[in-house]
């Protein structure tokens, strides 16, 4: 699956052989043909009572069934929703609740979201479906400038918090450019929204019900590759899960892997291989909510106890994840006030429109492991700059300033930056040059 950008954070103390270990894992992973191996949730359901086997689309269908049953104001609408949707997520709901509450819309995404905003403001619980996440862009203005800001622009007199936008996201290997994108990053910078991405059926049901009942407008991205591939024991009862809490899926003490959706399973496989082949203990965190993201859980698990401690963090980000989103996380996690000796390594890898495998996660770790202290190393394509004391030249990237301390390793496409001397000068990732 796509890991089009990779953010990595590493504490020092990694052995000299780590680089070849990462290369060995890369060789193993390159021989694997599957996108990922699905790992059912190892934890027992948080809700007691009866459970049944459900795949992800069945769990989503069950969540919407409960929402329509328990809330008379709830409505479900979108393209082809009436007959069950292209992925069958709404199958049977129109027959059960009628065409007045479950209905088709014209092929106009901005109209679907605009109608949902109006319905939510009027007091309805609006569940809108965008048939593919790739088609959400015509509704971008409605989502970002209307839904997200409605509360603020009215001085909290009105809001459309009872709006949930569901959309299938990610690639399945044959969808082409209009059926494979993961555009969650575009919405990750918008105050007033919640952006949620489940990793399996059990999480999908509880998180979707929580979104539907949430007082902020939510975008609920559904990894469509798992609609049928992911099967778990799911409680049949009505339950919700926290939208504010990341989930530590696998404890560990050497490397922290952070992801969401399908990528959690990619990282679990990386952790399994690292343990089996090199006895490296990896912890895996499912971010669950991309906006807002659970900083407290990440801070708790990514921390520096002493400068000799071995540790790392690899955080994978899907298609089109803007640099600022990752950089902001690195800046916050790397705040010197939290840990004076913490070494921050931000690895941002842009892979264009290509699918990226588990190998790229390990490659990021490889880059981090071989970072050299007290050296600045910049690679711009074939152009290389090395320095141990001089400031880096000014570069224009775009969007907002950050300042990172201690050692930093940044990979952005073909750009690589290493430094471990003084705090790096603030870099502007997009709008203007700074030194």
TrEMBL record:
Q: Which GO terms describe its molecular function?
A: branched-chain 2-oxo acid dehydrogenase activity; serine-type endopeptidase activity
Q: Which GO terms describe its biological process?
A: branched-chain amino acid catabolic process; proteolysis; response to nutrient
E.C. number? 1.2.4.4
| Reaction catalysis annotation | N(6)-[(R)-lipoyl]-L-lysyl-[protein] + 3-methyl-2-oxobutanoate + H(+) = N(6)-[(R)-S(8)-2-methylpropanoyldihydrolipoyl]-L-lysyl-[protein] + CO2
Question: PANTHER family from the xrefs?
Answer: 2-OXOISOVALERATE DEHYDROGENASE SUBUNIT BETA, MITOCHONDRIAL (PTHR42980:SF1), 2-OXOISOVALERATE DEHYDROGENASE SUBUNIT BETA-RELATED (PTHR42980)
Q: What is this protein called?
A: 3-methyl-2-oxobutanoate dehydrogenase (2-methylpropanoyl-transferring)
User: Gene3D superfamilies from the entry?
Assistant: 3.40.50.920, 3.40.50.970, Trypsin-like serine proteases
Q: Please give the InterPro entries that the UniProt record associates with this protein.
A: Peptidase_S1_PA (IPR009003), Peptidase_S1_PA_chymotrypsin (IPR043504), THDP-binding (IPR029061), Transketo_C/PFOR_II (IPR009014), Transketolase-like_Pyr-bd (IPR005475), Transketolase_C (IPR033248), Trypsin_dom (IPR001254)
Xref: SUPFAM superfamilies: Thiamin diphosphate-binding fold (THDP-binding) (SSF52518), TK C-terminal domain-like (SSF52922), Trypsin-like serine proteases (SSF50494)
